[in-house]
């Protein structure tokens, strides 16, 4: 029980780590210093992990991983949309 809780907390922290970047983009209305290629690669990596997370969840394990990974995927997609 401890490890899924730690994973959930860690995943939420990692997902929320993107929020300052989003706030900065919205505040300055500028994405000129951001690399779209870098964010697309991050999105691809998280997408591949999402497939793995779905596989774990279907087999009855890894629900916390699926939740936090999906959150990260959505946040990074939002940054890409802003770029």
Automatic annotation (TrEMBL):
Segments traversing the membrane: 6-26, 38-57, 63-82
Cellular compartment(s): Membrane
Bilayer topology: Multi-pass membrane protein
Pfam families, sorted: PQ-loop
Key words, A-Z: Membrane, Transmembrane, Transmembrane helix
Name of protein: PQ-loop domain-containing transporter
Species, as recorded: Paenibacillus violae
